[in-house]
Design brief:
Order of helices and strands: HHEEH
Strand content: under 5%
Shape: globular
Helix content: 40-55%
Structural class: mainly alpha
């Protein structure tokens, strides 16, 4: 299980790094607006956090302005261990609900497999 989690964390880091590079270029440009990529990434992070249960399992990719940028590529806990979600927490995000559900949002007809229900993630 640890190798799987490490692989997922590495894949997430690649995606977060690509988003950070684009957000940095946006922030450092003179045409950056109030709806910066950093701001939109932070808003999406807050959205995911409301569906996966108590505690902050998600973090923004960083922050930036026309003068400087700061990265947050790998999401880790206080012991530098990659933060993980249970399958029920992940389904809560995909179904966009903190309640028990079998479908919603990205999967309006639900998903196939053994685990199809999101947990009570509130």
């Amino acid at each position: 299980m640890g190798a799987l989690a490490a692989g997922v964390a590495a894949g997430n880091a690649v995606l977060r790094n690509a988003l950070f590079v684009m957000a940095s270029q946006d922030a450092l440009s003179s045409t950056s607006t109030a709806l910066s990529l950093f701001g939109r990434a932070a808003a999406m992070s807050k959205g995911r956090d409301q569906f996966d249960g108590p505690g902050e399992r998600d973090q923004s990719i960083g922050s930036g302005s026309a003068k400087s940028v700061s990265a947050n590529i790998t999401i880790v806990d206080g012991n530098s261990v990659a933060v993980r979600r249970t399958p029920e927490q992940a389904l809560g995000i995909l179904y966009a609900t903190a309640s028990v559900a079998a479908s919603g949002a990205f999967f309006p007809a639900g998903v196939n497999g053994t685990i199809r229900y999101s947990g009570l993630n509130s």
